[in-house]
Structures are given as structure tokens and as C-alpha cells.
Design goal:
Chains A, B, C, D, E, F: It catalyses: a 2'-deoxyribonucleoside 5'-phosphate + H2O = a 2'-deoxyribonucleoside + phosphate. The structure is a homohexamer. Chain A contains 10 helices and no strands. Chain A starts with a helix and ends in a 20-residue tail after the last helix. In chain A, α7 crosses α8 and α8 runs parallel beside α10. Helices cover about 60% and strands about 0% of the residues of chain A. Chains in contact: A-B, A-C, A-D, A-E, B-C, B-D, B-F, C-E, C-F, D-E, D-F, E-F. The interface between A and B is large, with 44 and 43 residues.
């Protein structure tokens, strides 16, 4: 049991890599991301008409990055190189970490991935909302170049969770105000070398 | 709703003051403490024979420091000066922060304080376990002088949550091994000036 | 004697909480605040026509946060919850810390609080000036969202210390220039839930 | 050209993940690792009897982590989950990053991987030496629990680069002295859940 | 040999002082500056028509701050007080550090200083380019007040290395865009007290 | 006046370089060193039989590093290269910084340097005591390899300030206890290449 706790403790040490790439000083940890996702999901749930299984919601939110204990937080720009196997790797890592201690989390992660239940949609909506609110706080506090996150705010999908959409609208507006007309240059984020072997 | 989320976001910025006092570089935040308390409570719950209301357990763990958003994390050494009013201040602050957004958390905090239900005892046992495991990790990693926490490990009370007691025993042993025979000098932590007006 | 020194050493570890709340990375410590208050008071004193007792001025400046050794730096937003007892707590803590080692500081802290002597007004004017110059430096360096401090600069009271007023005018102007027209949103700083029991 | 420079600049932001996992505060960056690998290779080369192509050696050392710009530094514990595709992903990422700007680095990385030339063996020996000297410095400075690195020092392979072996012997001895008899507990580093699908 | 490596390891600990003065949180280290200078020199060299001795170029770039191991990175504002003896001190320090281990670096540093060979000009152009690109990244990421570096970009001298000039033109433009119309106040950077003994 | 304040503000940004070299994470700033020197001098003065001019004592303590605003904190290992001109450079820098604002500090710095008055000896004794107590705190908190400071404690000279000697004796003892029998290897700190031109 302590082994598993100690592994999950690692999440408090791992910086969210996107903020590192954006030059944010002292960025949030993966555990902070999970904590706030849970808090946001809880708050959103209060505004829903449907009943939700709160134990499930909070467990999903808290454990949804468990695979990062062993794989760390990979940046978006890694996507073209890892997308094929990343999900399988995460699933296996999660299984190894929780083995014999908290295995009932595994089906919850699967449920979250499938986005069919209200709980899954709520947590997913909360997770994405956490990301754009974090971007808004960083823009407000001049921490890093987070102009790229305008796009995340713009394409935010509330997955039918209405209060999430309402909050996201305010966040989008405020983020825009804080960023002002700063130029956005995709410095080092993407290059499209069309190479035969990536096809 | 966003106001409340933004206030709770503050927890990711507040360092746990005990570790600051102990000279731990880059100490965990209050949000990390809450995140791990929730994780530990979840894991311990898997080993209990009694059924527990997991939504309640995780909500208690996640929100139990909500008052610190406005009061910050006060160190133990403040206790003689603030103990009379601290709890009332926390209660009021929690009420103001959650007002109109997540007020159903308030009775959970009261329940946790009373330590009568299994959920309350579980979260409390998890919280104290989080503290001594954090001490153990810091001792392991040579971060700060945490020799004072030997005492916390020694007097750990599992509140009847048997798996918590079992883990705490291992933690106590390992903490002792990592600290070795380092001298413990209560440098600046306590002084007992008996002054008329403190009585 | 070493106990007292070691306690006061704690001031070098405590971050000024206002800057933490404002998202300033690597904010100044309480000791930095005291150091600069002393430096500023010294410089202002050179421009005064009245003679000042410099030993008293510098001692006041250096020791004026001594209570924070045990109580830490509480944020403004704690004010509604702690204002009634905070001053008494600080006085007691200061007494315990300096007991038998530097008790002659205690009447100086009292004198500073009463703002009657020129030395007290000078140190108080210097302290507030330190706060708005720090805000100006942070605005200049893009560290955190310190737009709230526009208000501190606007309502600066030099307490009759003319050179302080002159410097504050420049600081106010520069702070305004650095902040530009950034929106100020009191994110998480205040909420006015009128609750019966706070009255 | 600036795009490529800006991407490689990312290496100065990426922490070496092994030290993060080990709880080292303010750990070295990937760029520091590359810088020191180059420095060490240069110094070792002075002691070799064979002539080496120094331009090749230093270029290999400086660019050998180029793929991490997009993939970041993956920890050892990720190995069971990523080993099959990691090398291919790195190769592709390196190609995309250096495309049209410094493509002549690519065959050097291939050469380094094959360990056939003296230059390749020298850089590889320097890289591993950098890791164990870093561990020694951290042990000396009490930064993190690096007891795991005793094993890296023990199994150090100089690949025939004699001066590297000589330095490694001293490093191994000093590392042992600094670590003393600290217990080594593989906290969170490995678990052997034999699962059908990992075979 | 290990002594020399350990001394050069110090470069990874030394912050570039100019960024400290500019209020940049978590600024780059001297080793990062050297690493990027080498990387940039390598990239620029690919675009040159003349052949260059790459071993020499990279060694110059990597070792050009070796004297700072003992003298640290002195800020520009120290110049009036130290300029007479600084170069001699650096030369001596470099000699002591590399003594008996990598003395063939010393003539390279002399060559770099004289700026006569293409290798020397290339590394010097790369070094200055590293400084203004770093300023551009910091401006982009809102880290510190780097408005002073507009001047560095404006007076950039490519020393005949044409691709360096081309990149510098883009950097200058982008730096200007990121800085916008922020006021530049030479806060604390220079004062011209004409004193007899400085003449 | 604000220019001078802003320059002195720089002292809060400058790390004490000795601790950087020793691998101390988040080391104290120059301003922290000055603050504690002043505090210690104040406390020691309470135990002296002789009267002291406290305004002078505290001003000396607060301003004694003023030259570092422009020269930064040079490490011990720079001594062989800079000792001839360092003092003159500091004097000139101090004069430029304080010019027209607080010039009456200059004779105090001279007085402190001459060590003739009780105030000068008191501040000097306090400054050295600050250094060894800082070393003791770092040893206690496992921050960096400060074993070198055993020597500073051993050769501490109280300059006739008896209470300083008494405290230093306790510090020396505790420092020894915290360091235990850790090996001391002068890694990178000194090398005695006897070179003709250093004579």
C-alpha cells in the first residue's frame, strides 16, 4: 500500500510540461492539475440537474493522470511521435501502479475515456476547464507566453455540461483581455517536415 | 462560480508552512496536501470492511483546508496565540468562500471536525498519515531538518482505521532510519516565557 | 541569545504573502521587507530638517515584523476574520521571542504603533513606501498581477514626512506606466457575503 | 534557422527527470547535461593516445538529446512501456527539428548509437560519467535521495576509454563516502506486477 | 582531471547576472549560455561558404567563460570599477583551472579574444546572438524587465558572419514586438557621479 | 533618491555566492545577510557593558555590502585574482551609489574597515557570526555541502566582543554535530598552480 502511495506522491513533483514549454516560472504540478480538476468537477456538479455519483467523479478526477507517475507528462508536440502507443502505455502503467491496491480505479479511467456517462463528461469538461483557467491565471500574472492557449479556450467543448460552458465563456473573455494584442509566434512548437516515414 | 474556483486555486500557491519553517526547499503546497490526503483516504478505504460514502470522503479531503484560502496555513508555533479564535475564523472564511456555490461542503467540514462517522475518521487518519509520509519523503531526500516529525510519527493515532495504523508503523520505522541519530535541537520552535497576560 | 537569533532567522524564510497571492514568482521575504524599510527610512531621514534618533528608527524598522516569526505574514483578505485579536497576538508573540534578550525593542514597537513621534512616522512612511516601490519593481519586471497595488499607491499617506511624499509621487506615476491599462479583476480577493455572525 | 535555435533552446528549460524523481531541488537541465558531457569528453580526449575528431565529438555531445525537445526526458521507470518505440520516435523528432538547418548532425547521432568509432565511445563514456559525477555532486550537497545511483557507478562501463575508467573509480569511491550507510529503499521506482500483456 | 571537471561543473550553478539584475525569475546559467552559444555557432557554420574548424569553434564556445568558475559573472555595471584588471584576472583564473588538464584551450581563448580568424568571429557573433535571442525569449515570456536589451539588439555586430546578421534582424524585430511600448527607465543601472579618482 | 533606493533594492536579488558554490538550494540573499548582521549586532549590544551608538551600528550593518550592488558578491576563490583592487572598487562603487543621497554612510564603512571603535568591532563580529550561524542552519537543514565552514567556525575571532564569542562557541559545537563525520573534499575550491605571473 505504501509503495502505491509513494508512487502517487510522484505526481506532486512532476511539473505540467506545457507550462514549462511556455516559460511559466514555478508552474503547477500534475497533482495541482488533478486537485483543481476535482474541485471544479465538484462545483460544476452542484449546478447540474441530473444526479451524479460524486465518489466516482472525484476518483476519476484525482486518478486520471496516474499513468504519468511512470511516463511523466508528455507535451503536445510529442503527439506525432507517440500517439499510436501512448494510450496503451498509460493503461499498462496505471495497472502496474494500482495493482493489488486500488484496482477499482481502472474501470473508472476506462469510463472517463469513453465519455459516455455524465460523470465521465463532467470530469472531462472540468479537466479542460482547469487548463484554460490555469492559462487565464498565468496570463493575468504575466507568467510565461501562454498566447497559444487562446486556441484551447476558443475550441473548448463543454460536452453538454452547461455550467462548464458558462464559466468557459467568461474565462475566454478574460484570457483575451489579459493577453491583449500580444503577437503569437509558434516558436518551436511545430514544424511540418513531411517525411516519408511519418506517413 | 469562477470567483470560488479562483479562490480555491490559491491553495496551489500556498506553501505548507511547517515545511518552510523546517527549511525544506520547494515544499509541497496546501493543494498537494489535500490531493494526497484524498488519494490516501481512497486507498485506505479499499481495505476497510465497512462501506464508506466515497463522495463524502473525497470531498472532505479535498475541501478540508478551504479556510486557508483567506487565512493561509498557520504554523504550530502560532497555536498559543491563535487557538481560541482560529476555528471560528476558519469556519467563517469557509462559509464566505463557498457561499452560493458549494455550501453543502460546510456540513462535511463540521462532520470531519467531530470525528464521529467512519468517513470523518478515515479522512482525519489519512490527513495525519499524509503528514508523516511527507516527512518520511523529505527525510529520505535530505530536504530540511524534519527531525521534529519523529514525534508526529510516534504519536500517530489511526482513529480505529486499521490499515492506516499498519502503514503508519512502516512509515515510523523508515522515518527513523532516514533520520538516523541526527541531533534534534528545537531551534526557534518553542519558548516558554511564562508571562502574566498569557494566562 | 542564539534561540532568539534563530527565531529571527525565520524571517528570511517567510515569503511576503501578498506577493504570493498576486502570483509573483520568487517573492521577497519578510526580512527583505524589513531590510528595505530600514534602508528607506535611513535615506529619508537624510532629507529631514528635524533631527531623528537613528538607532531608534533602524531598530523599529528591523524589528517591526518580529511577531511574524510565530504568526507568519497574514494576507489582507484575512483581515475580517482576525482583526480583533491579531494585534494582541503579535504583541504577545513579540514579547515571547525577545524575552530576556532584546526586550527594549518592545516599547519601540508600541511607539511605532502610536505614530506620535517623528521616528515612528518616519518608519511607518518608509514601510508603506517599501510596499509600493516593491509593487513598482514587480510591475516593471512583469512579476505577478500587482494591479491591486495601484490603490495602495493612490492612497499613500506620508504622515508628514515630506521626502517620502515626493518619492511616492514618482513611484505612483511609474507604477501606472508599467501597469498600463491592464484590466483589474479582483479575482478571489474579496467577497461580500453578508452573514449574520460576522457582524 | 531561428526556429531550430528556438527549439533547441527548450533544452535549457527541461529538467533531467531522474533528479526530479529523486527529489533533487533545482535539478540540472538537459542542456546542462549536454554541456558537461561535451566538457568531459573534451577533457578525456586530451588523455587519449589516439587522435579524435574533436568537431565530431563535441557535436555529438551537444546534440545527443535533441529528440527531447519534443519528447522530453523520459524516466527509467518508463522503460517497460516505451522501449519498443522510443528510439524511433527520437530519431524522427531529431529529423524534424534539424530539418534543413543542421541535418549533418543526424548521421553523428546514428554513429554515436552504434558505438563503433572512438568518437562515439568517447562521448558515450563521457555521458555516463556525467551522470555519476552529477550523482556524486548531489550526494555531496545532500540534494535528494540519489542512493539508487550507487548502482550506476558500480556498473559503469568506460567502453575502452581508459581515462574515463580512472575518473569513474574515484567518483564511485567518493559517491560511496558521501552516501555512507543510508538505507536504500526503492520507493516507487519499481513494481513487478507480472501481467500477461507486458510479455 | 576530476578537480577540473568539478570546477567546470560550477558553471551550471552560476546564474547569468544580467538576468538577475533584470528581475528574470529562474534565469539561465552560465553553462546554458555556453551551450546555446555552441549550438548557435554550429548552426551558423552550416550556412557559411568558408570551411571552419568545428572542433575549434565548439571548444571556444564551450570554454569561453571558464574564468567565471572563480570570478563569477560580473554585471555590466561593474565595468567602470573592474575593467582595467578583469581580463588579466580571467586569463589567470582560466590558466589555473585548466592547468595540466586542458591547457590547449588557453590559446583558443586568446584567439577568440583577437577576433581575427573566422572561427573567432563566428563564436563571438554566436555569443552575442545568444544574448539577444535569450532577451527575446524572456520578453516573449514576460520574464523580467529586459527593455534594456533593445539596445543590444540594435547595435548587434555580426562581424561579417552573414547568417548571424540575418537571424539577428528577425530577433530585433520580434524583440521589439514583444516589448511593445513599455517604458524604459534605467532603474539603478547607471549613475554618472564624476569623481576625481575615477579618472 | 529613488535611484539610490532602487539600486539598494538589488541587494535583495543577489544570492550570497558562497552558498551557491556550496550547492545550497534557494540560498539567502545579500540583503538577508545584512538584515541578520544588524539583528545580531543589536542583540549582542544588549549584553555589552560599554555604551554603543546604535544608529551607527545598525547603519554599518545595513550598508556594509553596498558596493555589491554594482560588483556583486565575489566568492573566496576569486581572492587571488582580485584582492589588489577589490577594496578600491568597492569604495568607488559605494561612493557612486550613495552620491548625494546618503553620503554620511561612507565614513562609517571606512570606520568599520579600520576595526578601531567598539561599533566597528561589534558589527564585524556580528557579520562573521551571521556567516557561521547561517552555515549551522544549512547543515541542520541538509542544504548543500557546507563542511568547509567548519574552518570559519574554528577560526572565529570575536574581536573582544565577549557575548559574540559565547554564541560562536555554541554554534561551532552544533555545526560539528550536524556535519558529523562527513568527508570534506575541497572539490573545485582551490588549486595551487604556481605560476610566475601570480607572484
Amino acid at each position: 500500500m505504501l509503495e502505491c502511495m509513494a508512487e502517487l506522491h510522484t505526481l506532486t513533483k512532476l511539473p505540467r510540461i506545457g507550462w514549462i514549454m511556455a516559460g511559466v516560472p514555478e508552474p503547477e504540478s500534475v497533482s495541482d492539475h488533478c486537485f483543481e480538476t476535482a474541485i471544479i468537477a465538484y462545483i460544476l456538479a452542484q449546478q447540474l440537474d441530473e444526479p451524479v455519483d460524486m465518489g466516482k467523479v472525484l476518483a476519476m478526477a484525482l486518478f486520471h493522470e496516474v499513468g504519468e507517475v511512470r511516463l511523466t507528462d508528455l507535451p503536445r508536440r510529442s503527439s506525432p511521435y507517440v500517439k499510436e502507443f501512448k494510450r496503451e502505455a498509460e493503461t499498462q502503467a496505471s495497472r502496474d501502479i494500482l495493482h493489488g491496491v486500488a484496482e477499482n480505479v481502472l474501470p473508472l479511467l476506462q469510463e472517463m475515456h469513453e465519455l459516455k456517462t455524465v460523470e465521465a463528461r463532467l470530469v472531462e469538461a472540468a479537466e479542460e476547464l482547469q487548463i484554460i483557467t490555469a492559462a487565464m491565471y498565468y496570463a493575468k500574472e504575466n507568467r510565461g507566453d501562454i498566447s497559444e492557449y487562446r486556441r484551447d479556450a476558443a475550441k473548448y467543448d463543454a460536452l453538454g455540461i452547461e455550467p462548464a460552458r458558462a464559466v468557459a465563456d467568461v474565462v475566454k473573455k478574460r484570457l483575451g483581455e489579459y493577453l491583449g494584442d500580444r503577437p503569437y509566434w509558434e516558436l518551436g512548437y511545430s514544424r511540418n517536415a513531411t517525411l516519408p516515414d511519418t506517413e
